[in-house]
Amino acid sequence: MPAATACLQVAVLGHLPRIFSYALPENPERLPPGVRLRVPFGQKSRIGILVGYDHCPPEITLKPIEAVLDTRPLLPESLQQLLNFGAHYYQHPLGDVWAAALPALLRQGRPLPRPAAQAYQLTRHEQTPARPGKLQEALITVLSTSSPTAETEVPARLRPVLRQALHNGWVEALTLPAPRVTVQPLPYPLNAEQRIAITQLRATQGFTCWLLDGVTGSGKTEVYFETIRPHLEAGRQVLILVPEIGLTPQLLARCQARFGKAAVAALHSAQTDTERLRIWALAAMGHIQLLIGTRSTLFVPMPQLACIVIDEEHDPSFKQHRGWHYSARDMAIQRAKLENIPVILGSATPSLESLYNVQQGRYQSLQLRQRATNAPLPGITIVALRRQYLQGGLSSDLLNACSETLAAGNQVLLFLNRRGYAPAVLCHDCGHVLHCPRCSAALTWHRHQQRLRCHHCGYESRWPEDCPECHSTALITAGQGTEQLEEVLRQRFPDTPVWRIDRDALPGREAFSAVLEQIHQNQPAILVGTQMLAKGHHFPAVTLVGIVNTDQGLFSADFRAPERLLQMVLQVAGRAGREDRPGRVLLQTHLPHHPLIQKLSEGDYQQAARLLLEERLQASLPPGTALTLMCAEAHQRAAIQAFLEAAKACAPDSLVISGPQPALLERRAGFERAELWVEAPTRQIMQKALKTWLPCCQQLPEARRVRWFVDVDPQFML
Ligand code: ADP
Ligand code: ZN
Ligand code: ZN
Questions:
Q1: Which reactions is this enzyme annotated as catalysing (predicted)?
Q2: Structural domain boundaries of the chain?
Q3: Which of 188, 222, 309 to mutate to test the pocket of ligand 1 (most atoms within 8 A of CB)?
């Protein structure tokens, strides 16, 4: 029998179902796993990652690779292991996992830059030009004022002369040592709760997962800072993950105020690809000590990583819901485990998963029960809406409270998680609701742009002339969105500025920052907004918070809706009265006696969350069990039904499967959607079962007529 031939195992970047084999290159030097290769693929060439070596049967002709792009692995072994874990755990192709983890330019095959900090000085023994030109003179002035001069201090217009001078030898370049943090002293003494937490956190050796459970404004950020300070002073690195890009500027500013600018940076999607790659490379060289970022920042190599912080750990934005469905929080915990370092999850409203993990002894809990400034937590009052006259969805109780608050010179924050003017348009004569032609969802009226829009697929249209069912012209809007609230408030309070804060009003980061600046003038004003307002911001002059539509969260088919409602309300409530002015919260509801509303009004997250967790465990829902959704989409309903039935029929016995059932949104962008709900007693059993089951599903003839994927530990019903 002829011997098997050795071959390279390559994860070609992209959504491809398997690893591909290529011939070993001619030169015998062994390439390390983790380097990029350019490989022939079909008619084209593509970028892939060398993930290992194997042997192929001799009858297979292996293609040679085209080029080796790196001399050293792009990611250290621990991160390569993390990606392997992530591909297995979430049942996603390794090539696509790598693609998600790498900066765009590396994915496209660009070389890894070595952006060491450079500086310049006049060469001692070399003569400067006898008769310098204007620009040369300017350069000499710049270089003699501070010597050596950092690259960033040389104005762009002098760069060409600088290059020339380097060439002629009267200026020389030197590489600066890695920048270091410069620690500023704390502006106030820490309180007892903070000190206890810090002492415990600092005592941690190796991997431990901490849950820092502290009410809004309890000074969690200071606890992170004091915990990581010794690491930074010792030259080590720290990673802080935040759920959303909107939260990075303020946290970056705070980090830089405390640790200086030289070794602190943020990575986010508003940066150019070049800038992102530069920061990535600097962190990989150890030249950035404190890195802040959203989800994928988790995969940045940091050779001296000493600790990971996950701020607002309960936030569902940590779960990626397109492509590779990973949880950045859970993957960060896995990274900490692989690197044997501590990880701190912080939140005022921890997820039920994390609370359960504390109960199970997997996480250690630390508590901050008081606000750092000693401001009391706001009181929460229920406003029963039954039979009240409403103006644009606002009760007279809430409107009166607004007047009082403004008269006292304070600000009001009204929360409504619905963009647009009205969430539905219907016919007053026959009751027909205008739907998106491509989705099973009502169209939202955006009056400002004079468009009906679908929030699921982007479909848009004009306001129709008449009802498509009965041709009546009596079309009316139903319900309220933030645009309508803004309008009602402007009429009612003509002399007060009303700021609407949602994605339509403030599409960019700049616009948002500008409004935040206005708000921080602390003049009387009304802020109307969606969840963009609810997260992490600090509005010192807000003393009244109104939750306009509390009931929206009570009737969702998503089993996480009560948890989300609880978190949302307490997070928004936490924006009130954070400094010297006490705050209050009004909850508008039609169901004042609903048990969850009652619990909300008590404002005790811990107690309410414990009850919700008990309910979940009794109902055999996560976190008590492991859940996976198998979702299928196709133009024909029969095709998805056939696939999901066939998949269900070949599932192992350890899985309990219900469905097929229509997805929460039955049709999206012209595709019918249905799902199987797959349960197992534990995550381990789930993992084992999926490993045998999914390859079978892939082989099913029915699989060819649908698009399908699985979402392991889903955070949203789809
Ligand atoms: P959290 O992250 O828990 O919401 P922050 O860390 O943002 O809380 O702190 C809330 C406010 O309290 C900030 O303005 C912060 O500067 C202030 N603060 C934190 N710790 C103290 C302290 N020990 N004494 C006084 N003020 C503090
Ligand atoms: Zn009609
Ligand atoms: Zn649509």
A1: ATP + H2O = ADP + phosphate + H(+); Couples ATP hydrolysis with the unwinding of duplex DNA by translocating in the 3'-5' direction
A2: 5-107, 118-175, 192-368, 379-423+479-616, 626-712
A3: 222
Burial of 117 (0-12, 13-18, 19+ CB in 10 A): middle
**Residue in 344, 332, 270, 261 with CA at minimum distance from that of residue 302:** 332
Residues whose beta carbons lie less than 5 angstroms from ion ligand 3: 436, 438-439, 454, 456-457, 459
Mean pLDDT of the chain: 90
Model's pTM, two decimal places? 0.89
Give the phi and the psi of residue 329 in degrees, each rounded to 5. Answer: -65, -50
Pair 662, 449: CB distance under 8 Å? no
Known binder of ligand: residue 402? Answer: no
CATH superfamily to which 192-368 belongs: P-loop containing nucleotide triphosphate hydrolases (3.40.50.300)
Q: 367 CB less than 6 Å from ligand 1?
A: no
Q: pLDDT value at position 3?
A: 67
Q: Are strands 498-501 and 526-529 parallel, antiparallel or unpaired?
A: parallel
Read out DSSP for 452-488? EE-TTT--EEPPPSS-TTT--S-EEEES--HHHHHHH
Residue whose pair of structure tokens reads 């006292």 in the numeric block: 408
CATH hierarchy code of domain 5-107:
3.40.1440.60
CATH number belonging to domain 379-423+479-616? 3.40.50.300
**Nearest C-alpha neighbor of 570 from the set 714, 383, 354, 415:** 415
Fold for 626-712, please state it. Alpha-Beta Plaits (3.30.70)
696 annotated ligand-binding residue: no
- Residue 454 in marked binding region: yes
- Identify the residue whose tokens are 């534990």: 682
Atom of ligand 1 nearest to the CA of 189: 23
Q: Which of 473, 472, 471, 449 is nearest to 462 (CA)?
A: 449
* Residue numbers in the chain where pLDDT is lower than 70: 1-3, 28, 116-117, 536, 577-579, 718
CA distance 414 to 437: 33
